[in-house]
Amino acid sequence: MDLKEKLVSSFLALENKVDIDSYVHDVRTDAIKIFEDQGFPSKKEEAWKYTSLNSILKEDYSVFPKQENALEFKDIKKYFIHDIDTYKIVFIDGKYASHLSQTTHDGIDVCLMSAALSKPKYQLVIKNYFNKAAEKDSLTSLNTAFSCEGAYIHIPKNKIVEKPIQILHFSTGNESATMLQPRNLVVVGENAHVQIIERHQSLTENPVLTNSVTEIFASKRAIVDFYKIQNDNENATLIDHTFVKQSRESFASVHTFSFGGKLIRNNLNFYQEGERIDSTLKGITIIGNKQHVDHNTLVHHIEPNCESHQDYKGIFDGKSTGVFNGKVLVNKEAQKTNAFQANNNILISDKASINTKPQLEIFADDVKCSHGCTIGQLDESAMFYMQARGIPEKEAKALLMFAFSNNVLSSVKIPELKQRITKIIASKLGVNIGFDL
Questions:
Q1: Which residues contact 385 (CB under 8 A, 6 or more apart)?
Q2: Which residues are 167's β-sheet partners?
Q3: Among 291, 331, 397, 415, which is 20 to 30 Å from 346 by CA?
Q4: Quick one: which of 197, 182, 103, 179 has its CA closest to 149?
Q5: Eight-class DSSP state of 120
Q6: Could you give the 3-state DSSP secondary structure of residue 265?
Q7: CA 244 to CA 219: how far, in whole Å?
Q8: 226 neighbors 253 (Cβ within 8 angstroms)
Q9: 289/281 Cα distance (integer angstroms)
Q10: Quick one: a GO biological-process term for this protein (predicted)?
Q11: Within a 13 Å sphere around the CA of 18, how many CA atoms are in the beta-carbon half?
């Protein structure tokens, strides 16, 4: 039995053991039919032209981990942003870890997706928002069919969340190979503000495949800052889908830091459904060996007088492969749009490669849109200049590469997170430089 057949047959078992209302049941039933019809994506599809899942799908993944592996905070402390007080929603092998978490219902809801899907008091929000932003492609639909756990975050009107929210997913290797499908729903009310940090971390050498979906809804004048830390081991695969729907005058940003994993695919879609909206998509990728990172982005400008800013930096070593497929779609009605898109890459190794495809589809005539990409190597004259002033070659390379990626870091609004990312970058570049940010 291949993985597709295993998943379809496992769906019935899941439906019998989870407690959900009829609306969610119908959504999940429709979703599994979509996955059954479409199957896993292949390189024959334009959006997956440079990313193959064949080697990953050969594993015999456990869909429902049979046992829990207890973890203590001291074992995983290094993966938390522990310098500041935060709300925490922690999952171990797909199951909620209450002893490691700090949730709340005090004026805001920072809790579990399983509770939101099953308890009557959440039904109105679920019916209005669950699966309303996510696309109906095969992998997103697969997640919808199996969605039963993840983070549920609801910030009511005029609420400013005083501290960031961390969502952490750990896999422990209880099974020889594990497949996880977390589902997050973030609803931010009018004039509300929230900061969220998400991380998927494998603690095992066993293969792990995570198919994650996050839906974010930013109401009028809401502010949402979302940060993704991807620094996993080389047996972990992450396929991450994030869908952001914005209402009038809202601001939403997603920063993606991709530093490790066997294969990472980031599907990031923004939909601007109102005027004077600002959307920011930024990312830094630093990988080596045979690692593969694919960023697939879409910003859909639907209404006039809106802005979007995309800036992705990539540094590739060894036999690593990078992919950037960024699309800006401007509707005919979306006049006065200002859209910027850039993808700049450095190849450290002759065997590393990058496939980049920035796209603009503009149907309005009064817009300011630009896109571009670069692929190159470190500036030899700059290297010579720094070495001539006594900076060793290794440190000179690191400084140049850090400067290359720093404009993405500069827009991170949580100082402790910025320091953590800086340390990871220094470690990836193989130096110990005290960057003071």
A1: none
A2: 89, 198
A3: 415
A4: 182
A5: G
A6: strand
A7: 11
A8: yes
A9: 26
A10: iron-sulfur cluster assembly
A11: 25
d(CA 263, CA 378): 25
Task: Reduce the DSSP state of residue 365 to 3 states and report it.
Answer: coil
CA distance 377 to 59: 36
Q: Tell which residue, 226, 217, 158, 167, has the closest CA to residue 193.
A: 158
Q: Is 46 helix (H, G, I), strand (E, B) or coil?
A: helix
* Cα dist from 298 to 19, 238, 279, 309, 350, whole Å: 34, 19, 11, 11, 30
DSSP 47-78: GGTT---HHHHTS--BSS-SS-----HHHHGG
- How far apart CA 284 and CA 255 sit, in angstroms, is 8
Strand pairing category for 151-155 and 109-112? antiparallel
Nearest-angstrom CA–CA distance, 374 and 163: 38
Buried b (16+ CB within 10 A) or exposed e, 181-198: bbbbbbbbbbbbbbbbbb
Which amino acid makes up residue 427?
A: S
Q: What are phi and psi of 194, to 5 degrees?
A: -145, 150
**What is the rounded CA–CA span in Å between residue 404 and residue 342?**
13
Per-residue pLDDT of the chain (437 residues; tens, 9 = 90+): 789 999 999 998 887 777 677 788 899 999 999 999 999 999 999 999 999 999 999 999 998 877 667 788 888 999 999 889 999 999 999 999 999 999 999 999 999 999 999 888 999 999 999 999 999 999 999 999 999 899 999 999 999 999 999 999 999 988 889 999 999 999 999 999 999 999 999 999 999 999 999 999 999 999 999 999 999 999 999 999 999 999 999 999 999 999 999 999 999 999 999 999 999 999 999 999 999 999 999 999 999 999 999 999 999 999 999 999 999 999 999 999 999 999 999 999 999 999 999 999 999 999 999 988 999 988 888 888 888 888 888 888 888 888 888 889 989 999 999 999 998 988 888 776 554 43
Helix 138-146 vs helix 3-17: angle between axes, to the nearest 10 degrees?
30
The letter for the amino acid at 422 is T
Domain ranges of the chain: 3-395, 396-437
Instruction: Give the predicted TM-score (pTM) of the model.
Output: 0.94
